[in-house]
């Protein structure tokens, strides 16, 4: 007995009703009519969104992530409930592919983010961020060859998007990375209680992102990803005659150590922002590299990343360093527990430092500690962490430190 969806059964009822119109006997549904009905119902069932059509599959996946954040800017304290930030926020994704020939396939991705309080836009005067938003993050098709690689066209991550971040295999990537997801829009307090620029504008990222991952936006591009050879792969993308980039990656395991390394370089001539409006084809350049190593028997791990920004429009440079180390161990049946400590530093000079009215040199520091508990049976992670930020712009102005504690969870589906 086949199990039909409600829509298919309803359609079957309509088909059965129609058969009686020209029939000598309304009760006579035997013979070839039912075989035809069976075929039509099967066709309807095969095209439901539950699984795709007969040729192209459909898979629905995603996650829901929310956290509670208690913060202190030196003059004000509060507690907010918020998302974890655009590009890693709660979302659902439609993916699928079809076999063209042995070794060849075609497919698609539609990735939609759903945010109730995007942490990138939350600050002292706004606990809702940009409000309830639904936005398209990715929408592209691809053709893939097992031996030649994959070509993708449409709105998607560039080859260099998140390159340094994604090698982090510790299980603490969402709550602890070098992007200012949690504090981007919060204003820096002066020692007199006034407000200066926002924390996310430190070491300004002209290509998207905040402090780290300065090429962190999806764009309409053509992208190529090579097959993996001996753990190595390369990617490149180009979009709208405004940007191009290239990335290289390696992942493998040697003598009980997991190792992953990735580097990328990108250039963009469409990167004006906050007064940096390029009118003569000036180029924003960003280099990033990240590495991860874990001793599998003990779970001891270390991760590091480096980013460098340059912009032809004016002199200046911004450099970001990020390190994280800890222990990933399975102490009980629930899943792995991850303990970590992190440190980040950004130094900027020239136009990168003075973008929001700071001095000619800026120095930003972040340190933090945290714990992540994975729950394998629910495809879930829970975390609690503490972070402390300080800032100096090489002037007589003194700035207050910013600190916060957050507790949250992410569940996959």
Question: Strands, helices and their partners?
Answer:
Elements: H1 6-19, H2 32-46, E1 59-72, E2 77-82, E3 91-101, E4 104-115, E5 133-145, E6 149-157, E7 187-189, E8 195-198, E9 218-225, E10 232-239, E11 243-254, E12 257-268, E13 284-295, E14 300-311, E15 316-332, E16 335-350, H3 351-354, E17 361-375, E18 380-392, E19 402-412
Antiparallel strand pairs: 1-2, 1-3, 1-19, 3-4, 4-5, 5-6, 6-9, 7-8, 9-10, 10-11, 11-12, 12-13, 13-14, 14-15, 15-16, 16-17, 17-18, 18-19
Helix pairs in contact: 1-2
Question: Quick summary of this structure?
Answer:
With 413 residues, this protein is mainly β. It has two domains: 1-48, no CATH class; 62-89 and 153-412, Porin, CATH 2.40.160.
Can you walk through the features of this model?
There is one protein chain. With 413 residues, this protein is mainly beta. The protein has two domains: 1-48, no CATH class; 62-89 and 153-412, Porin, CATH 2.40.160.10. The protein is built from three helices and 19 strands. It has a 16-stranded antiparallel β-barrel with strand order 1-3-4-5-6-9-10-11-12-13-14-15-16-17-18-19. Strands 7-8 form a two-stranded antiparallel sheet. A hairpin with a 2-residue loop joins strand 15 and strand 16 (335-350). Helix 1 packs antiparallel against helix 2. The longest helix has 15 residues, at 32-46. Residues 1-31 and 273-278 have low confidence and may be disordered.
